[in-house]
Amino acid sequence: MEFAHTPVLLQETVDGLNVKPDGIYVDGTLGGGGHAYEICRRLDTKGSMVGIDQDGAAIEAASVRLKDFGEKVTIIRSNYRDMKSLLHEMGIDRVDGIVLDLGVSSYQVDAADRGFSYREDAPLDMRMDTRQSLTARDIVNDYSEEDLTRVLREYGEERYARSIAHHITEARKKAPIETTGELVDIIKSSIPEKERRKSGHPAKRTFQAIRIEVNRELDVLTDSLDDLIDLLKPGGRIAVITFHSLEDRIVKEAFKRNENPCTCPKEFPVCVCGKVSKGKVITRKPITPGEEERKNNPRSKSAKLRIFERASSYEMKYK
Predict the structure, then answer these.
(1) How many Å apart are CA 11 and CA 286, to the nearest integer?
(2) Among 77, 91, 125, 199, which one is least packed by beta carbons within 10 Å?
């Protein structure tokens, strides 16, 4: 299957980066290279782009899409959590902009053998990086009922987390749960019939939760954002596109904390904690897709874009 993925909020994201023609930019979730391509179009001969993705199929697709930009582009198969060390190995200490698009690509969803979709029967996998050992099958068959409940509740915000976890553990006593189809049937049997008719597919939240756990998506995001902001040059920007409330909350809070890190009690007349702002939030409210984009690309409807700008050295010292 061809790696097809329509970049979400493309112009809004690239415009929001204020691309400098001679700048250094990083796409930490390269995918098919849609955002990176648009950034590269705005670079001159001195500008450069580093693309990072942990998915081998994405690396192949982006390499083809970006080949005309030649040595301007460097593509690395890795996770964006390692961005700082990867750039250091390249002799890069600071960059002018970073993009993260945290959505699952259309290719990953539509490729049945990847196990991301609850609409196709396939082996339970859900790995973004097929080199890692942990799969959805391991979680479904090896996690305790308590841990499964936690994962479904925290990462899927699933109302019936305990019931689904119980039905999973009961089903696997008879035989291991091997496929997405088997898991969907178990989920359906765990939810009251009248509730199954509401708000989309009954397996949606469970599959989201297991995918997040397999790939440690929220842990990586939480642990990386401060370092990514530190990588920015003065005036540099980071743009992050999220697709569900858990991700968006992490990004919103991280940007807010880096803008105003002061931990002094509110009643203190002046700051004495010594923590200095790293910059400012550009998007007080997240940017969302317009009506036309939502119509042309229904998977974009939940997308939210937030942008943070690194302060100048002077601003950080005297603000």
Answers:
(1) 15
(2) 91
Q: Please give, one letter per residue, the 3-state secondary structure of the chain.
A: CCCCCCCCCHHHHHHHCCCCCCCEEEECCCCCCHHHHHHHHCCCCCCEEEEEECCHHHHHHHHHHCHHHHHHEEEEECCHHHHHHHHHHCCCCCEEEEEEECCCCHHHHHCHHHCCCCCCCCECCCCCCCCCCCCHHHHHHHCCHHHHHHHHHHHHCCCCHHHHHHHHHHHHCCCCCCEHHHHHHHHHHHCCHHHHCCCCCCCHHHHHHHHHHHHCHHHHHHHHHHHHHHHEEEEEEEEEEECCHHHHHHHHHHHHHHHCCCCCCCCCCCCCCCCCCCEEECCCCCECCCHHHHHHCHHHCCCEEEEEEECCHHHHHHC
Tens-digit pLDDT profile for residues 67-119: 999 999 999 999 999 999 999 999 999 999 999 999 887 777 778 889 999 99
53 DSSP β-pair partners:
77
The band of 270, judged by pLDDT with boundaries at 50, 70 and 90, is confident
In the predicted structure, residue 319 carries a pLDDT above the cut 60: no
Cβ atoms of 127 and 55 within 8 Å: the answer is: no
Residue located via tokens 């339970």:
124
Question: 88-92: which pairs have CB atoms within 8 A and are 24 or more residues apart?
Answer: 90/50, 92/24, 92/50
pLDDT digits (tens, 9 = 90+) for 203-234: 999 999 999 999 999 999 999 999 999 999 99
